[in-house]
Specification:
The complex is a heterodimer of chains A (528) and B (775). Chain A is an alpha/beta fold and 528 residues long. Chain A is 32% helix and 15% strand. An eight-stranded mixed sheet of chain A has the order 7-6-8-1-9-12-5-13, sandwiched between helices. A three-stranded antiparallel sheet of chain A has the order 2-10-11, with no helix packed on it. In chain A, helix 3 packs antiparallel against helix 4, helix 4 packs parallel to helix 8 and helix 11 runs parallel beside helix 12. With 775 residues, chain B is mainly α. In chain B, helix 2 packs across helix 5. The longest helix of chain B has 34 residues. Classes of the chains: A alpha/beta (528), B mainly alpha (775).
Chain lengths: 528, 775
């Protein structure tokens, strides 16, 4: 993907036989390639000889080169095109929308760690748990997810204070420990389900049921995109596997399908149908695209008063731009060695997640509103590929933290050094915590624990270097300032300039909200 | 809105100070105090300490500490003690302005006088006055209109009369080629063939459109098209969703049932009854059982329903029942009854009790596979399955010991040979037993449907929380519906079956004011793109108002008096001048009615995802019209606890079936259909969105399925008119657009075809606006 067409300006003509992968593929594979070559220069627009064009041509990625040539051809032809509708209509679902009040955050990066990350082994320091290590836990109201509760178990990791703020983190996260002055921990989270999928739905949609719009879909619906040729909501699944329920996690629910999260593949074609098929020569694609736009333009002229027809003409131009821009996002070869190392791209264990973290930054730079990174996959298979440490906390969380720590720390540092952290909200969440007791008497694993857990936020408008709320002395229940995901969602929308009670969608008789009938903006989490 | 608030609306705005001797009037004097000071905590929203003060029966019953109101004994009533501050730590209300001494005196007098509180029914009736849909539809006479041509069909008279009110005129009739394309897509979801277009254009009789409508409605393609509309409303999903998203392998029978019902023009009232209680009705038992697949067609939380925690299981079950009650209420009654799970409806006269009455009707329903064979046949198969399983087990158990003997060695040759022969024999027998087993299992015909069991008691749940049961509930329905009323004549422990049959009959009573209106409005919407009420699942106060209330009523009454026939209704609409208008823009009319709510033209609209895919397959000649049976699955399945579905452009006739036969997997993605606004399957979708995005453009530009159909379309054109490029282009336009190309269009297309191949022209047509818009 990183190879660039080597063409001299003089030969920079869309019909020439260049080393563009599109042409190369078509010549190798297409049945009609001989004919294509023979009729290689059919249109009068083939001479792309001026310097600016040849510069763009050279800089274009191979797969996008046809799209670029076509777009350049359109420039002259479409000087008189009516302006496409800019209102937020179904015809242009990504058009920017006004916020309710001035936003602090322009975009969100949501890192979603799957399986349930143990709070008492990561960010919530519990000396009380160590003191009572090995004791029975008696609570007749305790309702475990699996089996019977075992005994209280201290964390196998050492906790230390870090940063100027002196916040506690365990030795699981040596890199994130250096970022604590930028983080805002919330140690008083609790959830309504001890079952992964409903709890994950609650975390990501505000409901425990299937089919409600995810955070990114609401943000896309509420704000539109800063960049018309990329979706507002992009998902980067973990290279090890998709989450349980896969695409249900980024569903648009009852919102328009345009607000569905677009999942970027880790390898190959980043999004489906992005690349012009190898069987279509570049000259054919140019010609048929021209024909299409002419047909559509004639049709729109014959059927006046229909904005959707113009929006659809525009959509084909945006699609061509997307063919150009998306490969550029996924190609990390232009990133410096230092940046790549910062994220951990040079290490096998961190490479994949580092790639996603770096892509997240690049997507944000291009105006994507909501980038969602999944850290972990589904629940099958051993060893586990998520944080669901039923069998042994030490091995499981050790492995998972090694994947997550450096890339996420790299992302925070990189965003900060580029000045992006001030208007980018970074949200790290997990569906629930893990029990301070072992799961059963024999294991060293921990069960699901919705009663108390930790998440953190960083960046735009978030008060950095603080730990908000508290669990009790063993991390079993929330002791101070309980919060639920509704509050986190309300606060996130607030930072984006939206009132969670006013961002609504009327569906089957109910003014639906991300926060259902709950949620408060938590002012103490905000820097001002 | 609470029942109390309804009362207040009718009461005087300010509480009047009353002397102790005056007769206290609840509505005038007491209700405003409760509303201001009490109900925000002691209403259906919060129900603090278990006490409600917004509902007569619940208020008199009291809360966790027992009765708060003891009629006749004001001074002894807890309510008076708390509001008067006799215990300063428990002064009520705890926040906000305390009650004045006048107000306290008034409350005390009211209780002393017997705490007279009018029945709740008055509240519902008061609300009902504001709800147009509570009044049963009348057969309104068609309005007088000047234009004789618009008098014949009552639809036209109602529409023209509304247009005339606004000084608007209808549009001229659509060109006949446009009309046949519109009607063919609308009724069958497919483009008309060039032959069909020619034949219609050459039929100059007055009955040409009527004949066309009959032909289309008689086609089995009609049921496939209209079943898809219904399946959207029924949130039909063939996988579980949630954590595992397993396939429900027998769910497809419900889809076929819907297709057949539409094709057979099954009377709609029967269609409704079958989907609620078909397993209990007289008639073909199999079909009736399949029909109840409707109740459980949504997502299914297998992990949640089987988790260890009893209370979490119960909560999952409540979510599942909310899905059933919500779907029944919205689909058949156009009411968001599900709002009542946590609190009485905020804007419609639907109480929390109403919700739980309806929930009690379905309390005995589980989702699962149900056998369809007659008992005797089933027993024979089950016996055979059990025998084969036992045999397979026997063989499997015998194997290891023999294998060990052989492996340990030291055996004489004949003995080793004998054991080897025996092992080979076991393997062969095992293989054949397994083969026979899978054959026997496949003969055990099942359907994913409602599986009844003996229902437990239903309690109202405070805030909808399974951990907070309140009073026992009797199965019933919406009290506010004036005609039939909310009682089903049941007892709290009535048998499961009686409950569903009673509800099914109640919904389809001719004096039910909603059922016919709701379906007539849906059919109208699917023909015109927008309903007379534009929120087809919500006729309540949050929903839209009918643009043509008289017409909606008239159609509803005609529908019921003509045997609830959908095909008759379709034809009535298709033959109307309103439907046959041109879709051309009219700037003057658009200034008055930009949204075309008054129908001064036919609103153009983009085809749905399924119609686009089916049209491509139809044009390419690749479409496979095989009906029914398990759906096609354009994904590769990979199971790792969760079932993962990866799209693949699979080849072969099985994958070229109409899109309604695509397996409905909740988590699976299909870039082409998703981009064209296929909805989230488990979500009740009465109306499809229609968006335009670059992702959609990319799908039509590059998707391998589209590419293949482009090539097949070109091959087909070439095979039909070999060596005649002009005729090829002409046929392409006729097939795709139901018209011939203009001279300029033909020349342009021929140039491109000559230089780049016919595929390039076919690609442009497949991507064009004219293809995907219905006009």
């Amino acid at each position: 993907m990183s190879s660039k067409p080597v063409i001299s300006p003089a030969s920079a003509c869309h019909c020439s036989r260049t080393s563009s992968p599109v042409v190369a593929r078509s010549e190798l594979k297409a049945k009609g390639s001989a004919k294509d070559r023979q009729d290689a220069c059919p249109t009068p627009n083939h001479a792309l000889h001026d310097n600016r064009r040849s510069f763009l041509w050279r800089s274009a990625n191979g797969f996008g080169s046809v799209a670029l040539a076509w777009l350049l051809n359109r420039e002259a032809a479409e000087a008189n095109t009516p302006t496409p509708p800019s209102a937020h209509t179904p015809a242009s679902p990504y058009a920017p929308k006004p916020t309710h009040f001035p936003p602090i955050a322009k975009r969100v990066i949501h890192i979603c760690s799957l399986g349930g990350v143990s709070h008492v082994d990561t960010w919530d320091h519990k000396p009380g748990l160590a003191n009572r290590h090995g004791q029975d836990y008696k609570d007749e109201n305790y309702d475990p997810f699996f089996g019977r509760p075992g005994r209280l178990m201290k964390s196998p990791w050492e906790f230390k204070r870090h940063g100027q703020a002196g916040l506690w983190t365990s030795s699981l996260f040596p890199n994130l420990a250096t970022c604590v002055d930028d983080l805002c921990f919330i140690n008083s989270m609790h959830s309504r389900s001890s079952n992964h999928t409903p709890a994950t739905f609650l975390e990501n949609t505000g409901f425990t049921m299937n089919g409600f719009p995810s955070l990114g879909s609401w943000v896309s619906y509420g704000l539109g995109s800063e960049n018309q040729d990329l979706p507002a909501y992009i998902v980067l699944p973990d290279a090890r596997g998709l989450p349980a329920g896969s695409a249900i996690n980024w569903t648009q629910g009852f919102l328009a399908a345009a607000h569905q999260g677009v999942a970027f593949n880790a390898r190959g074609e980043p999004i489906p149908d992005l690349f012009t098929p190898g069987s279509t020569s570049s000259s054919r694609r140019l010609a048929e695209s021209d024909l299409l736009q002419t047909m559509n333009r004639d049709d729109a002229a014959a059927n006046p008063g229909n904005d959707e027809l113009h929006a659809r003409i525009r959509a084909y131009e945006l699609a061509a731009q997307m063919q150009l821009s998306v490969p550029g996002i996924t190609d990390l070869s232009g990133e410096s060695d230092a940046t790549q190392k910062l994220y951990g791209l040079d290490q096998p264990v961190t490479r994949d997640f580092a790639t996603n973290c770096l892509r997240a930054r690049r997507l944000c730079e291009r105006g994507v509103r909501f980038v969602q990174l999944f850290n972990g996959g589904a629940f099958g298979g051993r060893p586990r590929i998520n944080w669901d440490a039923h069998e042994g906390i030490e091995q499981n969380h050790g492995n998972q933290a090694a994947v997550m720590d450096k890339p996420v720390a790299g992302l925070i540092k990189d965003l900060k050094s580029r000045g992006m952290l001030k208007d980018t909200l970074v949200l790290w969440t997990t569906e629930f915590g893990r029990t301070p007791v072992t799961q059963g008497l024999e294991s060293t694993g921990r069960d699901h624990h919705p009663n108390a857990f930790t998440i953190w936020m960083a960046g735009a408008g978030v008060k950095p270097g603080q730990a908000y709320g508290a669990s009790d002395d063993i991390g079993f229940h929330v002791a101070d300032k309980p919060l639920e995901f509704y509050d986190i969602h309300a606060t996130m929308l607030h930072l984006l300039g939206m009132d969670h009670e006013r961002l609504t969608f009327l569906h089957n008789g109910i003014q639906r909200r991300l926060t259902n009938v709950h949620g408060h903006v938590v002012k103490e989490l905000l820097s001002s | 809105m609470s029942a109390l608030l309804f009362l207040i609306l009718a009461a005087s705005p300010t509480p009047r100070a009353a002397a102790a001797s005056d007769k206290i009037d609840f509505n005038r004097d007491v209700a405003p105090i409760f509303e201001r000071a009490c109900v925000s905590c002691h209403g259906s929203d919060k129900e603090k300490s278990g006490l409600r003060l917004d509902n007569r029966r619940l208020a008199l019953r009291g809360g966790d500490e027992g009765p708060a109101i003891v009629p006749g004994k004001g001074a002894d009533s807890l309510l008076i003690k708390l509001v008067s501050g006799s215990d300063p730590d428990r002064l009520m209300p705890p926040k906000g302005k305390a009650l004045s001494s006048k107000e306290i005196a008034l409350l005390k007098s009211w209780i002393d006088q017997g705490a007279d509180w009018p029945e709740d029914a008055t509240a519902n009736a008061a609300a009902g006055d504001k709800q147009w849909w509570l009044v049963p539809p009348l057969r309104h006479p068609a309005p007088e209109v000047a234009d004789a041509g618009w008098r014949g069909n009552p639809i036209d008279a109602f529409v023209l009369s509304r247009l005339a009110d606004k000084n608007l005129s209808p549009s001229p009739p659509a060109a006949r080629a446009v009309l046949i394309r519109r009607m063919t897509f609308d009724v069958t979801g497919l483009p008309p063939s060039p032959e069909e277009v020619d034949s219609f254009l050459s039929d100059t009789s007055d009955h040409a459109v009527s004949r066309l409508a009959d032909r289309l409605l008689d086609s089995p393609r009609y049921g496939e098209r209209w079943a898809r509309h219904w399946l959207d409303v029924a949130r039909f999903t063939e996988s579980q969703g949630f954590e595992r998203d397993k396939i429900k392998p027998h769910a497809w029978r419900y889809r076929d049932y819907v297709i057949d019902s539409f094709n057979d023009d099954k009377p709609y009232d029967r269609f409704v009854r079958e989907q609620i209680a078909g397993d209990l009705l007289p008639g073909p038992a199999t079909e009736g059982i399949i029909a109840t697949g409707f109740l459980v067609a949504g997502a299914y939380d297998e992990v949640g329903l089987n988790q260890q925690s009893r209370i979490m299981r119960a909560r999952t079950r409540e979510e599942a029942l909310e899905d059933v009650v919500g779907t029944v209420g919205q689909t058949f009654l156009g009411l968001t009854v599900n709002c009542g799970r946590c609190h009485s409806h905020k804007s419609d006269p639907i109480s929390q009790e109403d919700y739980y009455r309806l929930k009690a009707v379905f309390e005995g329903i589980n989702a699962g596979d149900r056998d369809l064979l007659p008992p005797q046949e089933l027993k024979a198969i089950v016996d055979e399955i059990n025998r084969l399983r036992a045999r397979a087990k026997e063989l499997t158990e015998e194997r290891p010991a023999l294998g060990k003997q052989l492996k340990d060695g030291g055996l004489q040759d004949p003995e080793a040979e004998r054991i080897q022969a025996r092992l080979d024999r076991i393997d062969a027998d095992l293989a054949s037993a397994k083969n026979a087993l899978s054959k026997a299992e496949s003969r055990r015909i099942k359907v994913f449907a409602a599986v009844p069991r003996r229902p437990g008691p239903t309690h109202r749940l405070a805030r909808g929380d399974a951990a907070k049961p309140r009073e026992l509930i009797t199965p019933g329905t919406l009290a506010a519906i004036a005609g039939p009323g909310g009682s089903l004549g049941l007892k709290p422990d009535s048998p499961e079956g009686e409950r569903r049959v009673a509800l099914a009959n109640w919904i389809t009573r001719p004096d039910n004011p909603l059922t016919a209106r709701v379906i007539v409005n849906r059919v109208w919407q699917w023909h015109f793109g927008r309903g007379i009420v534009d929120t087809p699942n919500d006729f309540g106060a949050m929903g839209g108002r009918p643009t043509h209330p008289g017409l909606l009523d008239r159609l509803a009454v005609d529908f019921m008096t003509n045997g609830w026939s959908l095909k008759r209704l379709h034809k009535q609409i298709l033959l109307s001048r309103t439907y046959q208008q041109s879709s051309a823009h009219n700037p003057i009319a658009a200034k008055v009615d930009a949204d075309n709510r008054l129908l001064w033209r036919f609103s153009p609209r983009r085809l749905e995802a399924e119609a686009v895919r089916d049209a491509l397959l139809s044009l390419s000649g690749q479409i496979n019209f095989r009906m029914g049976g398990p759906g096609y699955m354009p994904w590769n399945l990979h199971i790792d606890n969760t079932h993962f579905y990866t799209w693949q452009d699979k080849l072969g006739a099985d994958y070229n079936r109409r899109t309604v036969y695509r397996l409905g997997v909740l988590s699976a993605r299909d870039s082409l259909l998703d981009a064209l606004d296929c909805p989230t399957l488990s979500t009740r979708t009465p109306t499809r969105a229609s968006t335009t995005t670059p992702i959609q453009a990319l799908a039509l530009m590059n998707n391998p399925f589209v590419q293949r159909q482009v090539a097949h379309f070109a091959e087909r054109l070439q095979a039909t008119h070999p060596d005649n490029p002009a005729r090829q282009i002409e046929l392409a336009y006729q097939a795709a657009y139901a018209r011939k190309p203009t001279r300029a269009e033909a020349d342009r297309a021929r140039t491109i075809a000559r230089n780049h191949g016919l595929n390039a022209v076919c690609w442009a047509i497949f991507n064009s606006n004219e293809l995907v818009y219905l006009r």
